[in-house]
């Protein structure tokens, strides 16, 4: 395996394979993405010039169902990154028992440099380029880093134009007016909150005892910070890509969110009526935030934030990975040796794809759910999988990450075996 991200992914696979009832054939199959597509997307810019962007879509494994995974717009998007993220989606969908395989897509760019019109032409151009690679029974994209419901709406519309029929089930995370599910926008944060609650209950900890730092204040990070704040956790630090704020007595998350939406920057604020005042706080860098002396650390930004270089400085007792892949495989070992419990991305951030599944079901049945139903199903399902992963970790005396992989691998292995492997034919 040439790349570091995918090598990390495969190291975790091999570790879990020691404990899961999975044949060698199946492990071998899972080391390689099923299909990878690289496309060029020509876009007419507002000033009349033509710019060509590079995009990808990777379908990693479809043994358990059509492939599923988001599309990110980010300058770091590369084939290696998209393949690794597609690998994670395969395990995430299996870990929480969705009838999906794993996929991912992306375009290499900084979307903040494009106008809304350019962004729409780019989004539609991407679908023109990958239309035959996706479909409601084949591969179903969704939002990821720097993409949102508006972009998913354009993409679904473009796919429907190409196919000559309305096809809402091809993409999830759409605006509610275009067949999106209620509760999808906050699903990743909500799901992560349910996992934190399930684990704190197992650990016999109450919210008031726990201080929290959240790295990343995007869709998932801000949603979980808000949930934790509302439940009584003391959220002492939050950050965005520009940097973070820290107040040891706790921050008022709804006010910070309101301030950030209005001024596009981060300050510790208290807003009363229409007046906001800036509260005493320290500015921290993202690096400093990770090293704060808190109970719970939540990396909710990008991958590879905690690596062998800075893992030694982590003081938190528990890490909940809301981002995909924020901790490298080398860092895993260091954190484990320090006695830090890490709850992995493929469980913690699975709420997003779980509600994406509900959206796909609603699109196909034509019957739309109330928000209460969405949240009830999400709570029940993610709590059940969290408890099972907790049990596997204790049964095999392994980390929660390895336990989650064992859990996913058992389901994947069974499906791969039933399709026909050497073990299957020998039995
Ligand atoms: N991008 C999200 C993830 O990484 C959601 C994927 C989806 O809903 O398909 O899990």
Automatic annotation (TrEMBL):
<dbReference type="GO" id="GO:0000166">
    <property type="term" value="F:nucleotide binding"/>
</dbReference>
<feature type="binding site">
    <location>
        <position position="188"/>
    </location>
    <ligand>
        <name>NAD(+)</name>
    </ligand>
</feature>
<protein>
    <recommendedName>
        <fullName>Glutamate dehydrogenase</fullName>
    </recommendedName>
</protein>
<feature type="active site" description="Proton donor">
    <location>
        <position position="104"/>
    </location>
</feature>
<keyword id="KW-0520">NAD</keyword>
<feature type="domain" description="Glutamate/phenylalanine/leucine/valine/L-tryptophan dehydrogenase C-terminal">
    <location>
        <begin position="181"/>
        <end position="420"/>
    </location>
</feature>
<dbReference type="Pfam" id="PF02812">
    <property type="entry name" value="ELFV_dehydrog_N"/>
</dbReference>
<feature type="binding site">
    <location>
        <position position="92"/>
    </location>
    <ligand>
        <name>substrate</name>
    </ligand>
</feature>
<comment type="similarity">
    <text>Belongs to the Glu/Leu/Phe/Val dehydrogenases family.</text>
</comment>
<feature type="binding site">
    <location>
        <position position="219"/>
    </location>
    <ligand>
        <name>NAD(+)</name>
    </ligand>
</feature>
<dbReference type="InterPro" id="IPR033524">
    <property type="entry name" value="Glu/Leu/Phe/Val_DH_AS"/>
</dbReference>
<dbReference type="InterPro" id="IPR006097">
    <property type="entry name" value="Glu/Leu/Phe/Val/Trp_DH_dimer"/>
</dbReference>
<dbReference type="InterPro" id="IPR006096">
    <property type="entry name" value="Glu/Leu/Phe/Val/Trp_DH_C"/>
</dbReference>
<dbReference type="Pfam" id="PF00208">
    <property type="entry name" value="ELFV_dehydrog"/>
</dbReference>
<dbReference type="GO" id="GO:0006538">
    <property type="term" value="P:L-glutamate catabolic process"/>
</dbReference>
<dbReference type="InterPro" id="IPR033922">
    <property type="entry name" value="NAD_bind_Glu_DH"/>
</dbReference>
<feature type="binding site">
    <location>
        <position position="68"/>
    </location>
    <ligand>
        <name>substrate</name>
    </ligand>
</feature>
<keyword id="KW-0560">Oxidoreductase</keyword>
<feature type="binding site">
    <location>
        <position position="356"/>
    </location>
    <ligand>
        <name>substrate</name>
    </ligand>
</feature>
<dbReference type="GO" id="GO:0004352">
    <property type="term" value="F:glutamate dehydrogenase (NAD+) activity"/>
</dbReference>
<dbReference type="InterPro" id="IPR046346">
    <property type="entry name" value="Aminoacid_DH-like_N_sf"/>
</dbReference>
<dbReference type="InterPro" id="IPR006095">
    <property type="entry name" value="Glu/Leu/Phe/Val/Trp_DH"/>
</dbReference>
<keyword id="KW-0547">Nucleotide-binding</keyword>
<feature type="site" description="Important for catalysis">
    <location>
        <position position="144"/>
    </location>
</feature>
<dbReference type="InterPro" id="IPR036291">
    <property type="entry name" value="NAD(P)-bd_dom_sf"/>
</dbReference>
<dbReference type="InterPro" id="IPR014362">
    <property type="entry name" value="Glu_DH"/>
</dbReference>
């Amino acid at each position: 395996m040439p790349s570091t991200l995918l090598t990390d992914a495969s190291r975790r696979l091999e570790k879990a394979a020691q404990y899961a009832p999975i044949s060698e054939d199946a492990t071998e199959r899972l080391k390689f993405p099923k299909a990878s597509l690289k496309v060029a997307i020509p876009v007419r810019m507002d000033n009349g010039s033509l710019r060509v962007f590079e995009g990808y879509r990777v379908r990693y494994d479809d043994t358990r169902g059509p492939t599923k995974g988001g599309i990110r717009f980010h300058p770091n998007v590369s084939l290696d990154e998209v393949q690794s993220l597609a690998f994670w989606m395969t395990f995430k969908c299996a870990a929480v028992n969705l009838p999906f395989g794993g996929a991912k897509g992306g375009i290499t760019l900084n979307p903040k440099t494009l106008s809304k019109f350019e962004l729409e032409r780019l989004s539609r151009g991407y679908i023109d380029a990958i239309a035959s690679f996706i479909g409601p029974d084949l591969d179903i994209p969704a939002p990821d880093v720097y993409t949102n419901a508006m972009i998913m709406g354009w993409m679904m519309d473009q796919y429907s134009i190409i196919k000559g029929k309305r096809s809402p089930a091809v993409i999830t995370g759409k605006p509610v007016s275009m067949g999106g599910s209620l509760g999808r926008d906050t699903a990743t944060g909500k799901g992560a909150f349910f996992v934190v609650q399930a684990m704190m209950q197992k650990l016999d900890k109450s919210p008031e005892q726990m201080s929290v730092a959240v790295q990343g204040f995007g869709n998932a990070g801000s949603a979980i910070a808000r949930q934790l704040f509302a439940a009584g956790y003391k959220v002492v630090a939050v950050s965005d890509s520009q940097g973070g704020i820290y107040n040891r007595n706790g921050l008022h998350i709804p006010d910070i969110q309101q301030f950030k939406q209005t001024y596009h920057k981060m300050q510790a604020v208290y807003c009363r009526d229409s007046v906001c005042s800036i509260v005493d706080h320290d500015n921290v860098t993202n690096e400093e935030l990770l090293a704060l002396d808190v109970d719970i650390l939540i990396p909710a930004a990008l991958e590879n934030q905690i690596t062998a270089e800075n893992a030694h400085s982590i003081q938190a007792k528990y890490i909940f990975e809301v981002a995909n892949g924020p901790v490298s495989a080398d860092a895993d070992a260091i954190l484990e040796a320090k006695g830090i419990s890490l709850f992995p991305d493929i469980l913690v951030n699975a709420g997003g794809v779980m509600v994406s599944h509900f959206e796909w079901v609603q699109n196909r049945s034509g019957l739309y759910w109330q928000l209460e139903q969405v949240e009830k199903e999400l709570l029940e399902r993610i709590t059940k999988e969290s408890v099972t992963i907790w049990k596997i970790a204790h049964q095999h005396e392994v980390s929660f990450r390895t336990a989650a992989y064992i859990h996913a691998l058992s389901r994947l292995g069974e499906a791969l075996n039933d399709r026909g492997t050497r073990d299957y034919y020998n039995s």
